[in-house]
What does this fold into?
Amino acid sequence: MHSYDEITQLVNPSINPDSIARRVRGSPWKVVNRSESGCRMVAPANEAPAKLGEVIAIREGDRWELAVVRRMQRQQAEEVVCGVEVIARRMVRVLLRSWVAPLDAQRAGIDRPFFGVYLPGHADNRQSAQRSLIGPDDRFLPGGMVELDTGNVRYLIRFTQTLERQVGWAWSLFNAVRKLPG
It folds into this structure.
């Protein structure tokens, strides 16, 4: 299990995933069974999620999957069985900035950039028909706009629909408003 910040490091393609995995907390969980939409995992009790709805990263071979904890059951004192729903098998870390209109340029330095996880519209992802983003819940508000920076191109995007909101993270659909210069 990994925190949201750790997950944004894990899905960064430019960093060696093995070196990141060694730095982040956690030990291997045991996959008990797997289906197309998720899996059942056994975790040490001291590393189990604190609550339902936590987002976790699962390493499957050399690929990472993003999942949400949907069920938890303590069967023994030292382990917890977790049912997780896999929501993405394809993802990219992106840099996001709160949108500042040109007339409001004095606010530009107030908000620091933050990372999000971009989920492209793809059959490997649960929301396969439209692209979406996962990021901090306090920054992903319906109708809100942010700059999305892929490293190669920047877009102004508007959040159109919240798919899921949990403490610490939100998952939202978005539309590109326009491509930004630079």
Summary: The first strand starts at residue 30 and ends at 34. The first helix runs from residue 4 to 10. Residues 92-180 form a domain with the Thrombin, subunit H fold (CATH 2.40.10). DSSP finds two helices and eleven strands in the chain.
